[in-house]
Amino acid sequence: MRKLVAGNWKMNGLAADGVARARDLAARAKAKPPVSEIVLCPPATLLAPVAQAIADSGLALGGQDCHTEAAGAHTGDIGAPMLKDAGCVYVILGHSERRRDHQETDAVVRAKAATAVAAGLCAIVCVGETAAERASGRTEAIVVHQLRGSLPPKLNAATLVVAYEPVWAIGSGRTPTVDDVAAVHARIRAALHDLATQADAVRILYGGSVKPVNARELMAVANVDGLLVGGGSLSTEEFWAIASACD
Ligand code: PEP
After folding, report:
1. Fewest CB within 10 A of the end CB: N or C in the chain?
2. How far apart are CA 121 and CA 113, in angstroms?
3. Distance 207 CA to ligand 1 centre (A)
4. For ligand 1, is residue 207 a contact (CB within 6 Å)?
């Protein structure tokens, strides 16, 4: 299976710095094509110029969210067909920041994933426990519960990527131990056998404070098929070092 490294720029970037970063990454990818698949997920305002900057580079484009409906009277939202039209191949859904800031439930994430897949996108569905949930020993139960609620039926390796992102690890500089990551990823893999087709081929990403110094170690964990990178994707050097560590 081809590993996947996704950079989630979140609500960061203006045309000048975002497009320059995309151009720089595209030049590096052309000079030395990465073994892993690399996806850039800029804010919606930069989708079009980033798509242009990475054309013919082998890098892929992803959105950070989409609406549950494909189109309609939803001011300020973005529909999955619009992402597809802008050149996206992927869309991140159910990120803990969306769940927190916009009260997104598992049912909402599931509806978004169904709409995204119907539009021809691959959904990167995020799950992960809070610090309190981990402290209470419920991590695996919480993650499986989120997964069951967030996945529409019959997704497969072409339409689904799962990202395990412990909420407490995002942007904190803290990561779970490799044993903890291995345990949760194995549990996700087992759950996928009930929830998706081609379960063994569905990529499961780890996300949360991934840096060049820990990327290789995390990628060596069983059932870690790639990385979702937030802060580390805002620096070309750092993101390229992470992506290269995955090759
Ligand atoms: C994220 O928010 O998806 C993420 C992984 O963030 P960070 O790498 O900054 O922890």
Report:
1. N
2. 9
3. 6
4. yes
With pLDDT > 70 as the criterion, what percentage of the chain qualifies?
Answer: 100
Among 93, 101, 170, 206, residue to substitute to test ligand 1 (most atoms within 8 Å of Cβ): 170
- Non-local CB neighbours of 102 within 8 Å, separated by 6+ positions: none
User: pLDDT for 75-90, tens place per residue?
Assistant: 999 999 999 999 999 9
- Cβ contact 66:79 at 8 Å: yes
Q: Whose CA is nearest to atom 7 of ligand 1?
A: 230
Query: What is the residue range of 195's domain?
Result: 4-246
Total-model pTM: 0.98
pLDDT confidence of residue 246:
86
Burial environment of residue 75 by CB neighbours within 10 A (0 to 12, 13 to 18, 19 or more): exposed
Domains: count for the chain: 1
Mean pLDDT of 132-149: 98
CA-CA distance, 184 to 139, in Å (whole number)? 8
Write the CATH number for 43: 3.20.20.70
Question: Is the CB of residue 234 below 6 angstroms from any atom belonging to ligand 1?
Answer: no
What does the DSSP assignment read for 2-62? --EEEEE--S---HHHHHHHHHHHHHHHHHS--SSEEEEE--GGGHHHHHHHTTTSS-EEE
Q: Annotated catalytic sites, by residue? A: 95, 165
| Centroid of ligand 1 to alpha carbon of 167 (angstroms) | 9
Each residue's pLDDT tens digit, 174-208: 999 999 999 999 999 999 999 999 999 999 999 99
